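Q: A reviewer asked whether we had any structural model of the full assembly, not just the individual parts. We don't, so I'm hoping you can provide one. Inputs are below.
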Amino acid sequence: MSRIGTIARRTFLIGSVAVAGGVAFGTYLAKKPIPNPLLDDLSDGEAAINPFVKITAEGVELITPRADKGQGSYSTQADLIAEELDIDPASALISPGLPHQAYFNGVVLEEGVPFPGYDDSWMAETARSFMSVPAKIFEMQLTGGSSTVPDMFDKLRTAGAVARETLKQAAAQRSGHSRADLTTEDGHVILPDGTKIAYADLAAEAAQIDPVTDVTLRPPEDWKILGTPRIRRDIPAKSTGAEKYGIDFALDGMLFATVRANPGIGGVLESYDASDAETMPGVEKIVPISHGIAVVATNTWYAFQAANAVNCVWGPGPYPESSAQIWDELDAALENPDRLDHRNRDDGDVEAALNGASPVEAAYRIPFLAHAPLEPMNATVLVTDELCEIWTGTQIPTFVRDHAMKILGFERDQVKVYGQPIGGSFGHRLEGTHVNQAVEIAQAVKGTPIKMTWSREEDMTHDYPRPAAVARGRGVVSEGQVETYDLSVAQSGLTGSWMGRLTGMSIPGPDATITTGSWDQPFAIPNYRVSGYRAPEMVPISSWRSVGASGNGFLHDTFLDELIAAAGADPLEERLRLCHHDPSRKVLEAVGALSGWDGPSLGENRGRGVAFVMSFGVPVAQVIEVTNTPAGVRLDKAFIVADIGPHTLDLANVESQLFGGMIFGLAHAINSELVYENHAPQQDNYHAYEGLRLYQTPEFEVQVLNNGTRIRGIGEPGLPPAAPALGNAIFAATGQRLREMPFNKNIDFV
Amino acid sequence: MRFGIFLLAGLIAADDASAAGETIVIDPPAEGSVSVAQGLEAWGRIFEVTSHPRCSNCHTGPSDRPMWSGPSYGRTRVHGMNIQAGESRMGIEHLQCSTCHTTKDTDWDNANAKPHSAPRVAMDWALAPPEAHWFGQSSEQICAQLRDPSLNGDRDMLELAEHLDHDLILHWAWTPGGGREPAPYDLQSHVNDLLEWGTAGMPCPQD
Amino acid sequence: MKLTVNGEEYDVDVTPDMPLLWVLRDELGITGPKYGCGIAQCGSCTVHVDGSAVRSCQLAVGDLAGGAVTTIEGLSAPDALHEVQQAWIDHQVAQCGYCQSGQIMQAAALLDLNPSPTDNDIDAAMSGNLCRCGTYPRIRAAVKAAAVKLQEV
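A: Here is a predicted structure for the entire assembly that you could use as a starting point for your response.
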């Protein structure tokens, strides 16, 4: 088949939900207008001009439906609306709103299309635009995939502009002026004579007119908020202890609960004996729930103590019991033709190039990883005969609502989900098992609100982790250049595992996440192939910050570095020579300049590594300098350059996400993994899953470029280059090539 | 001459600490009743104790860094979190040991039940003084240190035994809780071995 | 059982082995100190007892022995900010923010003891507080800035 034909076929067989959505539901549902959910709940004199802007007698309330897990999304969403609405965002109330189709994420599924992030051709853009259809139909109000800014950039500014013009229209009708003669400033419409009418004062009239939708968005040079230095709105409260996270939420008469579920996730509770636990201090009730037991008590600590004292007999987990068996399954899938899931990159003739040459070969392993945010999973739930109210920090409010409906047999309007500020997630809160448990508990103590909190141990051992993977690279170098690059990756498919839990549906087709971050890199290598092999579903797995790219970034860039070393070329120069995407080249050039790159060596026992990964459309290059001390490797200095598209909305926050992402990547590369025995991870708290500490943290320099064509999100792309940059630096300093994470299996760190 | 000293652990410490320690009898053998060979056998057992991680991990000598060991660490390693006990040996200069190793005066049996939490005793947590260097040291080195008054806090046999009695941190080594492996034998046997070794004239393998 | 938190006296009816953290959070509704690990690995629950930093998940309320507890809610005078808090805002340290109550309480204890800490002092004092988001570069900068400000006062 011709290349165009192949691409066209892929476009329509992209494997996952696009097809399910487009074909199954047709254009009627895709085009059906979505009602404004705020209209259901308006008082007299209030206006909900669109799903994102509500004007009340008190002022302006902005709906910021993407969850804030620490990436600053509440602030950015409010600022996007405020920029066009002409209000001081600090003066506005914000609320994530109730879950609703109106808040579907039109961008999050784009990462699944078989076009690399640097491809902005018509075909690629068309395929991406299809992905909003299933997102809309499945009401995917979902925070993830670094999609908040690209999804909301136009949507929220438009919402702000529509609200502004509608308020002006209301003022025009009241004053007899033409709307074109009115202006707005700081929450007021200004009449030609300078008279100011507060938005709140216009709410009742604005509610009576059709929203003005023919709006033009302001050009960036006119922005007053976006792009200017400012303090993120949540930071003061987070510096005084005043921020109330989900775990801090309280209701009168509330009891505290915890659970213990089968450590083999999905396994049954065969029997339990709570007779000792029931007599312990503070215990109110012990009840069985799905796959486990729950304790309701007068204090979370009493609940923890009693839960540990319940004698539970567990059935086996429905997957291989040990990491050793799982590695065997992964090894068996790798390069097994029956397990080939997709081969989205196949340039030149790899087989011919490898034949007869003596290829460079390397084998890699990456482990299961827990998300382990500091705020453990929790949910406060009150169930009555008529209503279920849920207060929880979640990335998937519509799914949380639907699961509660199913558990309780309730209708949609009987379940309310109130999103709470989140103490870290990294993808953990793309799951809802803990909320389902809390709903079950609340049902058992109907009429009494309960706050269910997972102990750290429950959280670590019942996480749906980042999948483990194995990979093999083969390549050929010639005359100082990389000529042939062949990478095979085997892992289980996380999309099917995760979407299965969320929707109860099985997802057809290939799972792009197996090679996301390796097949889609902007390099032109004459013979260049990346193959994804799908191992059977084993441990239930999920998305972990940067998803497929978290592991594939390491695999792809490390093997490239090995080939460059074999060719005797300079790591930065050869990446630049191979890179054909202009914004990516500029990122590599800039990280070279920022780090003063003049080769990988920095003298005796010192070295630096460069790595490049494009993920979520964001090319990121990182350089890290290390010293090999007698006690172990020390991280000295790190440099990050990223191209986030044409606009930087909040530089301080972008920098924060970039170095935070790199630190997250370094932490896990150095010392973190989940090892399964008896179906359960053996790492149940931070003593065995350490992360990075302040003293290990290098100095950082960050530079943000704006050469890309489309605005991008930045919560994840800083992560994938971290591990390969570190591994490449350690190779430069010590000559030792690290092919298995965590690196501290094979080398010490200080 | 025969000594018969009975001391209750914690008698000198605060009242409510009495719940915390184990009652120890300090009853040395009669002078001249222990041969050098028997003394060396006793020393062998003492060395098993002093070189055990529950003891040696906090006897790190010139280093002010305590050590961690146990199955979940794979191997003995430096205490996480960049802990530096400083000259104070209690972390006063930076991060006090007592920030995490809080004082636990009550409910001694359950004080350290939670696996991997910071061990607690009814006194301030601290590293041993630098001269009491046991971690990674040989039997000969530790023996030489323990019998040298200039390196053992100017203590004779009885004072060493009393020190074992008073210092509740040392008691913790035999009741570490939380699934940790206790030091070998028990506190009373260790005190008896010390007294036997002392009565034999503190012989060392290198003698 | 009586205890003093942020200058207020409270009487709670709990078992003496309950960690101070859970007395503060679930009995008194003082939620600045956070539960992260329960085993002194993360430092999110850090409070001051008689001025010293303590992991409140490790201190049984029965062992408080009359010590005065200060949580982040009581670190500064009402409606004012401690210099450490101001520095945390100025440097936009927080991401998710969940560990920052503990980080700030630890930093305040450090500066109380050592008004001009070196880089090594900061690394030694602040490495018991875990941040999963990776805010460390800005924590370093904020501690230094707060030290300068406190010296000016």
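A: Points you may want to mention in the reply: Chain C touches chain B through 29 residues (CB under 8 Å). The mean pLDDT of chain C is 97.
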